[in-house]
From TrEMBL:
Belongs to the metallo-dependent hydrolases superfamily. PANTHER family: AMIDOHYDROLASE, BLL3371 PROTEIN. GO terms for molecular function: hydrolase activity. This is Amidohydrolase. It comes from the Bacteria. Keywords: Hydrolase. InterPro entries: Amidohydro-rel (IPR006680), Metal_Hydrolase (IPR032466), Metallo-dep_Lactonases (IPR052350). SUPFAM superfamilies: Metallo-dependent hydrolases. Residues 6-297 form the Amidohydrolase-related domain.
Length: 301
């Protein structure tokens, strides 16, 4: 029997309830993820549970799904209702714009929901506008850094989705705020097309790994290479595990977004294959115990 899986990164959406700009037509292939038309349809707990059938699912963490910023609290309230009725999700990483001078009020509202464990604001900035998710590098902005510091006041974690070139600066921000646990999304998203893409990734990940309150999700392989293969990305996953140790890494499906690049089972079977040489305790940490502990989910697994 498979070990319990606490899925550290999922998304749910109901397109006629909230507005998700990135899931609306017209669809194009020139953005950071290519066309998202294939996943631009409702994705509910029943769909998620069907996708994870057979994987001994013990819990899940929903990460902000890119709804319009004005719907940040509405998304959280909707997810709380889903969780009460279906058990999915177990925990919530909500959205807040940390560069907003008034973000403290929103953080308090988000933290007031019992399943909210953290905040994500995607901060991927790249000099190539086709790769950039943001108009500027928010992580260098003093107002953004002030908003980040407020997370500790509300007992909130930060899900960090950035590019490797931003990591040394973020390691300094993390060092100044040791009471804000950080969870790197999608293995740090190395940009293989950059001249120093892998060197930037290694330098940045090492800087973040030096902070004991930083962990990483093993997910998002299609963000690294839309045409990824297990043989190509196995060394990258093993290197991430080596940098952070099996006590600070966690597997995540990133469904349904990662389904843009491969069937969900392909990812999970790949993750399973790279744990063959690990101890039972290490495997259980990667598949569920780390996510349970780092996100404070309170599950018995």
């Amino acid at each position: 029997m498979r070990v319990p899986f606490v899925d550290a990164h999922i998304h749910l959406w109901q397109l006629d309830r909230l507005h998700y700009p990135w899931l609306m037509p017209p669809f194009a292939d020139d953005g950071p993820n290519g066309s998202v038309e294939a996943i631009a349809r409702h994705y509910a707990p029943a769909d998620y549970l069907a996708d994870l059938d057979g994987w001994n699912l013990a819990g899940s963490v929903h990460v902000d799904a890119g709804a319009d910023a004005v719907h940040a609290v509405e998304e959280t309230e909707w997810l709380e209702g889903l969780a009460a009725g279906t058990g999915v999700p177990t925990g919530i990483v909500a959205y807040a714009p940390l560069h907003d001078p008034a973000v403290g009020n929103l953080l308090a509202r988000q933290a007031g929901h019992r399943r909210v464990r953290g905040i994500r604001q995607i901060v991927n900035w790249h000099a190539d506008p086709r790769r950039s998710y943001t108009p500027q590098d928010w992580t260098r902005d003093p107002q953004w850094q002030a908003g980040y510091a407020l997370l500790a006041r509300h007992g909130l974690r930060f899900d960090l989705q950035c590019y490797p070139a931003q990591m040394p600066g973020m390691a300094e921000v993390a060092a100044r705020n040791p009471d804000v646990p950080v969870i790197i999304n999608h293995m740090g998203m190395p940009v293989l097309g950059d001249p120093d893409g892998m060197a930037d990734w290694r330098t940045g990940m090492a800087a973040l790994a030096a902070q004991p309150h930083v962990a990483v999700k093993l997910s998002g392989l299609g963000f690294v290479d839309r045409h990824w293969t297990p043989d190509a990305l196995r060394p990258l996953l093993l290197e991430a595990i080596d940098l952070f140790g099996t006590h600070r890494c966690m597997f995540a499906s990133d469904t349904p977004t990662d389904k843009l690049f491969a069937p969900l089972g392909t990812y999970l079977e790949f993750y399973e294959s790279i744990t063959d040489t690990l101890s039972d305790d290490e495997r259980r940490d990667l598949w569920g115990r780390n996510a349970n502990r780092i996100y404070g989910l309170g599950l018995t697994i």
